[in-house]
Amino acid sequence: MAFGRAGGPGEAAAGRAELTHPAPQALESAVTTMAGADGSERMELARARETIAEQAAEIERLRATLAVAATAGVIGSPVTHARLLEMIVETGVHVIGARAGALFLLDEARSELVFEVAVGGRAEQAKRFRVPLGHGIAGIVAVSGQAMAISDAAGDPRLAADIAQGVGYLPETVLCVPLFYGNRTIGALELLDKHDGRTFDAADMQSLSLFANQAAVALELSRTYRAALRFGERADPPEDTAADDALELAELVHEIAQQGESERAACRTLLRGFADYLRAREAPASGLARLMG
Amino acid sequence: MTTPPERPAWSLVPDSLPRVDAIPLVDEITPDWAWGGSDGEGVRVAVIDSGVDAGHPAVGGVDGYVALGGPDGSELSEEPHEDVFGHGTACAGIIRSLAPRCELHSVRVLGPSLTGRGPVFARGVQWAVENGMRVCNLSLGSTRRDLFEPLHELADVAYFRNVVLVTAANNVPVPSAPSLYASVISVAAHEIGDPFRLYYNPAPPVEFGAPGIDVRVAWKGGTWITATGNSFAAPHVAGLVAKILGKHPGLTVPHLKVILRAVAANVRRAA
Fold first, then answer.
1. Contact by Cβ (8 Å): B192, B266
2. Which of A36, A124, A168, B264 is 20 to 30 A from B205 (CA-CA)?
3. CB–CB of A1 and B169 under 8 A?
4. Rg for chain B (alpha carbons), in Å?
């Protein structure tokens, strides 16, 4: 959250927003208790209200987009996953109004950030690459879990070297927010160079952070489904690991089941879809086996 | 001969309690009373972060180092270390700008390896609480649910030992520990550049606002950047707390919250 004019996008933006973000009413009461509030402060307050309303509408639109994207990721082909990544960056770039953007995912095992997709600049030429942590803004955002913006990235080229490689130019301003899924950080979303030449402000940080939260859910659902598909296409695992795998699967389902009703519903949809896929795949084979027997 | 009656373990013996200083009425607390003339001398401040670059002109030396690592955070080194990212140096620079003579300790919990990230962080906080730190700046947190309980306990231990945990609020409504606990001072960024301008938020868990938007901060390798984030708001409060404790060493965490609220810019004062 942020104080002052940036405020929060309001309760409509996120069901759990009250946890860390003061509602606009609370912000208002904080401002109106200011000693000797004059005309300019009242105007400031009116502007804050407008910004909050605009942001709430924006976030609602994003939610709808992301809901569609999430569904597409779940029921679509692997190509749709790549498209989902692009959509996330495109939506962020469009809504905040930036010249370019990029998405990084965290590879926990190798302690690296994997550059997945970029939009803007020479993004179409960008190849997937890895960045060791400790370089660039995305690294510190991913490990600290704190959003960050810089207004003079060109002043220290090392800071934006990761993203410069992805889009083919060195940005002036960067806004980077973490992607959270469940209780862990899975990556970072970066935007470069705001359109109007101004620096990214607290309201941009707030909006992109909330958007990234929704995007991470869509992304993780899509990734899980892809992994499930790949598993389904492989040969049966050796006997000795099958029991361990089954146990791990049961633990995962148990963990998800404890998260809440919507998480249980999402899990059920995913598993049912996968089970249906397996049944459909196996049916002709068993028919053939009967014929041959 | 009669034996004295046994006292319950938690009872107080009034005559043997130490005397403590009086505190003025809340309305009478001014910034000048709170920190006027103080440079934070003698106050131990821990920057629990990515390390601190002692050679950066904004930092002007580090008084102690601890780097934690390993899968469970139990590997500990007190050798001088560098800042892996620049983030810790930024926080240290802000603290020093407000409390130039505080005793600064770098507790490194963030590094280029992600192994044990959560446990290392929790161990870092534990080290600071158990090793005489008075103020801890936490411009980071953990979203790992299995760490919430140990971090909550640690935050309470810190509170009772008068160790002030100043934490950066998270921009996302994702539960992040320990910034959501009542025993810490949770801070978000506001856009006014005056480092002494604080705001009190009547809707916790984020209780205070401090400068954190387009702030000129020290960074890795002796550089400076202009950065935005709650990460840079928290050290402003940590620095002010160090100043206050330099002048009033006996204050506790609840006193400090009352004082910070009393000097906040959005408090309606009696005419």
1. no
2. A36
3. yes
4. 19
A174-181 and B164-168 beta bridge pairing? unpaired
Q: Give me B6's structure tokens.
A: 């046994």
ipTM score here? 0.89
Nearest-CA neighbor of A138 among A84, A91, A86, A175?
A175
Tokens of B223: 């550089």
| Chain B interface, best mutation among A34, A108, A140, by max B CB count within 10 A | A140
Alpha-carbon dihedral sign for residues B74, B156, A186, B233: negative
B92 contacts B107 by C-beta, under 8 angstroms: no
Burial bucket for residue B203 (CB in 10 Å: 0-12, 13-18, 19+):
middle
Confirm or reject CATH 3.30.450.40 for domain A4-228, answering yes or no: yes
Task: Name every chain A residue with its beta carbon within 8 A of the beta carbon of B90.
Answer: none
B-chain residues within 8 Å CB-CB of A145? 140-143, 170, 176
The DSSP bridge pattern shows strands A174-181 and A148-150 to be antiparallel
The residue of A1, A180, A200, A211 whose CB has the most chain B CBs within 10 angstroms, and thus the best one to mutate to test that interface, is A1
Domains of chain B: 38-262 (3.40.50.200)
The structural domains of chain A, with segments of one domain joined by +, span: 4-228, 235-292
- pLDDT-above-90 percentage for chain B: 77
SS3 B188: strand
Q: What is the pLDDT of residues B125-145, one digit of tens each?
A: 999 999 999 999 999 999 888
pTM: 0.77
pLDDT tens digits, residue range A215-245?
Answer: 888 888 877 777 777 766 655 555 556 656 6
Across the interface, whether the CB atoms of B227 and A26 are under 8 A apart is answered no
Q: Which residues from chain B sit within 8 angstroms of residue A213, using beta carbons?
A: 172-174
B15 sits in which H/E element? none
Q: What is the largest CA-CA distance in chain A?
A: 92
